[in-house]
Amino acid sequence: MPPHPVPNPVNPAVFPSETNARYLLLLVAIAGTVFILAEGVIGGLLFTEDDLPAFIAALVVMAMVFWRARHLARHDAQRRIRDRQWQPFPPPATGEKGRSLQAMNQYLQALLVQLPTVNAAQPEFVWDEVSPGCDRPTGIAFGYGRHTYVCLRQGLHEAFLKARRSPLFNAILLHELGHIDNQDVDKTILALALGKSFFPTALLLLGLLNLYVVWHTLRNMLTQGSLEPVLQGLPTIVGINLKTFGLLLLVDILLSSVLRVREYYADARARAWLGQPSAFLQLFATESAQPSMPIANQRPAWQRPLARWYERLTRKHPTHKQRIAALLDPATLYRPSGEVALLSGLLCGLVLNSGVQFLNVGLVELTALTSTLNQFAQGLVSSSLGLWLLRLVWLVLNLLFVVVVVAIVGLVLGLGVLPVVATVGLQIQGASWCDRIRPKAQALTRASQLARLALLLGLGFVLGCLLVPVPKTFSLVGVGPLGLGGMVLLWAVTFGLWLLPLAGLSRPLYGNHGGSHGPRPQRRFLTRLSALALLPSMVTSSIAHVGFSVSAYDPDVIPVEGLGVVLVSLMGLGFL
């Protein structure tokens, strides 16, 4: 039967989906990792000793990774169709098969008329009867930009022949159309293309970085005539590789999570069109009954524990049990994710730690410009006109210094705030909107939940600082376990004191909002307000973090005595 929307007390599409949040985190992780590795290679005297060329070159490398990914994404659809020998639907056929394919095409076109938002995308259907597994009733939504496709497998045609209006056939088809309606097809294809562009580039940069460290170590060994440089360089090489592989695993986890989480929202969209989840329950029960062997079990016995752990981290599809739970209770899609909180905090720390380079390069270049203009101004003092011009130059210099410093600091902090506000912040707003119809005991924004999220954000922030392969200002080099625990607590308190008022403002703001459509103006207002509210405490906590990190690395620079009083004072000022 044609799909028809059925009112649901919880509409999963009201707020930006978790797919969008994880996609944003993936972009930040790839950009940050490429920049860190490229700046480490180029800034490590491989090509230049100047900060600005190394900085610009790192940005160019990062831009090339995204450009190549976009190029791959734009040509992905045609490559798939050509390499897998798919045909436009309906394919040429005669007899009964030809008539049934034409009937199926007419049904699809009538179905699109009932879905105006999907029909506006003008999806094209292609036919697959040659790929391995094409006898199963499945489909694939793919494409990029204005060209969107849905691949119909031969097994789906057989399901149509059995009962063209069966809920099972419609569930599979509407799930793929749900991806188009959710506008996650572009994100999926670009995410996959980013993986193809990112991993080879990151491994190449890591190899160059290793070569530089080895060369530098051997040169020092030959110069000093001892093995001491080797003993000092070996931990550096091990640390760089472990941290870099940690960042590569982070990107792999985020890429897999984008592919996994989007399935929940396609299911939810199809469920809303069908009006009930029974067709999906039947489909998942059928697929669960089919025998399958995990990939990890196909490996040698000694590799299986690690392979199972990796499979759990990078699972690209949710389990049937997880999908059924989300279908039966769509409100679970609004539950703030602890995994997203941990990853958001990690990328916040990663961005701030690597973003300090923006501040360093900007201040160095600004100082050089100020010195040049000052020398020019000193040559104009010989006349009254020269004196007037000197005062004007000094005024311009002061204004330029203030504007540039504020802009650089705002850029660095804005990039650091973005991974948290645009993910966890929006999830808190969505959970508060969902809480208006849930019992208070089952509220998604209880104090205990907020405390858990704050702790995960703090833990993630410290991990992000530690994962930077080339030590920087936030890296906490030389800080012991107790100090690291203190930093986790510092940032947990920082994020907790931001989450509490955010949830408190969201409840009355969304509590009286009726209907199933999203309160977009309120959401935009509260998102901007929450970003501005997080900035002051981020500034003071960052100063406290850097002060503690520098004092632990070199106590002569910042004495430990009295540091605690200063840090507490700064935190209090920021929270006020």
Task: List the uncertain runs.
Answer: 1-8
Number of domains: 3
Strand order of the largest sheet: 1-2-4-3
Which H/E pattern describes the elements? HHHEHHEEEHHHHHHHHHHHHH
Give an account of the 3D structure.
By secondary structure, this protein is mainly alpha-helical. It folds into three domains: 191 residues, no CATH class; 96 residues, Zincin-like; 237 residues, no CATH class. Helix content is 72%, strand content 3%. The chain has 18 helices and four strands.
Topology:
Blueprint: H1 18-46, H2 51-74, H3 76-83, E1 87-88, H4 95-113, H5 116-120, E2 124-128, E3 139-144, E4 147-153, H6 154-162, H7 167-181, H8 185-224, H9 228-274, H10 278-289, H11 304-313, H12 320-328, H13 338-378, H14 384-434, H15 447-466, H16 481-511, H17 520-553, H18 563-575
Parallel strand pairs: 2-4
Antiparallel strand pairs: 1-2, 3-4
Helix pairs in contact: 1-2, 1-8, 1-9, 1-13, 1-14, 2-8, 7-9, 7-10, 8-9, 10-12, 13-14, 13-15, 14-16, 14-17, 15-16, 16-17, 17-18
